[in-house]
Amino acid sequence: MAYGILKIKNTKGIVTITINREKALNALNRQTFDELNQWFGTDGPKKKGLKGVIVTGAGEKAFVAGADIKEFDGLNEKSAEALSLKGQAIFDLIENFHVPVIAAVNGFALGGGCELAMACHMRVAGEKARFGQPEVNLGIIPGYGGTQRLIQYIGKGKAMELLLTADMIGAEEAHRLGLANHVVPAGKEVAKAKEIIEKIATKAPIAITKTIECVNVFFKGNYDGFAIEAEEFGTLAETEDFKEGAKAFVERRKANFKGK
Ligand code: DAK
Asked: What angle do CA 203, 99, 197 make, to 5 degrees?
């Protein structure tokens, strides 16, 4: 499969994947998801001599400003739940990838963008990075693991606050809370991620892979919060407020929610 949106560059075993939709602030449309699936599910695992992967966004403004709101139209309970499960499965591929995957967060990481960054093993934030889960502004909830992963990084109380208020936080706050591993000057995110990968590449590769597996197993409880998240996401897709939220965004006006 040819890649039309992802720019993929392999430099001495470090692959940098750039989501290249700068005009749409790198929003995740269906094609971007398909290409991420193709790379993390099929092409990436076959690469020989791979040390690590860096995921970043094109331009200086955004890592990824969310799922593509312009593709929300026409979703119903079934299709939204299916899409949520598909997105979760792709982000699971990233979370369980056999070599380190680092998000180089160069600007807005909102909604699905914050979820993508959280699916990576670490996050290096540029000083202009902004993180947030603004889904409730649109009448929905995070559909790609955000309700589950944010708690893992910053704890229940703060996660609840960010998810319920839709507030954005800057790089320093994300670092203080444990969401960002490092904060670096703008433009240095990829370089710092490379430095971390080079350090990890000096360690035993199988131990690295097993460490990733073990850390991830800790978070697989007996309950399936992701399935519940997908189910609830499907339910919300049929609400009037969801349609109004997306429409208001496109029309650049404040949404008029009715609780329906
Ligand atoms: N989707 C599509 N286009 C987007 C976008 C997005 N998420 N974010 C920005 N853009 C586009 C804008 O529409 C604009 O395009 P034009 O109008 O010029 O054609 C261009 O990018 C530049 O954006 P702005 O003009 O708005 O730039 P500003 O600097 O004024 O503002 C901003 C930057 C990041 C604050 C603002 O763009 C913004 O608030 N963006 C939306 C943030 C957001 O709400 N993101 C979505 C969160 S919800 C699902 C599962 C999960 C999800 C969805 C579905 N299923 C299972 C179905 C997840 C949902 C989310 O991610």
From this structure: 60
The angle subtended at Cα 81 by Cα 256 and Cα 106, nearest 5°, is: 70
Whose Cα sits closest to atom 8 in ligand 1? Answer: 65
The pLDDT score that the predictor gives to residue 149 is: 97
Paired tokens of 88: 């979760």
pLDDT at 195 over 70: yes
Q: Where do the H-state alpha helices sit in 8-144?
A: 30-38, 44-46, 77-95, 112-119
Work out the burial of residue 259: count CB atoms within 10 Å of its CB; fewer than 13 is exposed, 13-18 middle, 19 or more buried: exposed
Name the DSSP letter for residue 43.
I
Ligand 1: centre distance to CA 44 (Å): 28
Residue 64 contacts residue 6 (beta carbons within 8 Å): no
How far apart are the CA of 112 and the centre of ligand 1, in A?
Answer: 10
- Whether ligand 1 lies within 6 angstroms of the CB of 83 is answered as yes
Q: Are 68 and 31 in contact (CB under 8 A)?
A: no
Distance CA 154, CA 56 (A): 22
Side chain identity at 137, as an amino acid letter?
N
- At 113-140, the pLDDT tens digits run 999 999 999 999 999 999 999 999 999 9
- For residue 231, pLDDT beyond 90: no
Model confidence pLDDT, tens digit, residues 29-66: 999 999 999 999 999 999 999 999 999 999 999 999 99
- pLDDT the model gives residue 223: 66
- How far, in Å, from the CA of 134 to the mean position of ligand 1? 10
Q: Could you say which of 81, 95, 115, 173 is catalytic?
A: 115
